[in-house]
Write a structure and sequence with these properties.
This protein is of the alpha/beta class and 203 residues long. It has one domain: Rossmann fold, CATH 3.40.50. The strands form two sheets. A six-stranded parallel β-sheet has the order 1-10-7-4-2-3, sandwiched between helices.
Length: 203
């Protein structure tokens, strides 16, 4: 295991986050299925890590109740899924960046993902590939602005400056970095469980 992973896990645990480390995404999913009771409802936020790992499909195939807006093209259904995902017992997401001093840094356009990270669920799982690990806040923000926002803008076919060049703190109506959440410690309600995977996953 890389030294930066060891340092990050130690810092996360010091800050009150529960952590698990896995060599592969398959191992992480296997453990996730052991921890989530089939009677619990599951919400999924926007996360290419979780989409690429096909977590939604695997849960639904096993009979879990899953709410996610991912893949929904009908605006009304998408809106309903966003609402339901915010009230589930378990919430699955990733983190845009995880710093070596044990902080989670996330940027959002709509706010649904950030609100679920803060309050309302019994457990929130953060599924993070090693590519999400950064030295500090400055490196985390640089990673988010130059990698995550750019690639998400391309994926969503948005007309934002970062898609075609560099971030310039735009005022685009399609801007996807409207709010930034820094989780320095675990919130006082609910459990925050972080899976660090020794693979590059999502962006």
């Amino acid at each position: 295991m890389d030294d930066n992973i060891v340092r990050t896990i130690a810092a996360l645990e010091k800050n009150g986050f529960e952590t698990n480390c896995f060599e592969t995404g398959d191992e992480a999913i296997e453990q996730l299925l052991k921890e989530i009771n089939i009677k619990e409802s599951v919400g999924i936020g926007g996360s290419m890590t979780i989409i690429n790992m096909e977590v939604k499909e695997k849960l639904r195939n096993l009979g879990y109740t899953v709410y996610t807006h991912n893949g929904e093209s009908d605006p009304l259904i998408k809106k309903e899924m966003l609402k339901k995902a915010m009230t589930t017992e378990v919430y699955l997401t990733s983190s845009n960046a995880v710093t070596e001093d044990g902080k989670l840094i996330n940027i959002d356009g709509n706010g649904n993902r950030l609100s679920s990270m803060i309050y309302g669920h019994e457990r929130v799982y953060y599924i993070c590939g090693k590519n999400k690990l950064t030295k500090d806040y400055s490196e985390a923000m640089n990673r988010i602005k130059t990698v995550a926002c750019k690639r998400n803008s391309e994926r969503l076919n948005l007309n934002t400056p970062c898609r075609y060049g560099e971030c310039n703190d735009c005022s685009s109506k399609q801007r996807i970095c409207n709010a930034t959440l820094i989780m320095e410690k675990r919130m006082t309600t609910g459990r925050a469980i972080i899976y660090i995977i020794n693979e590059e996953l999502g962006y």
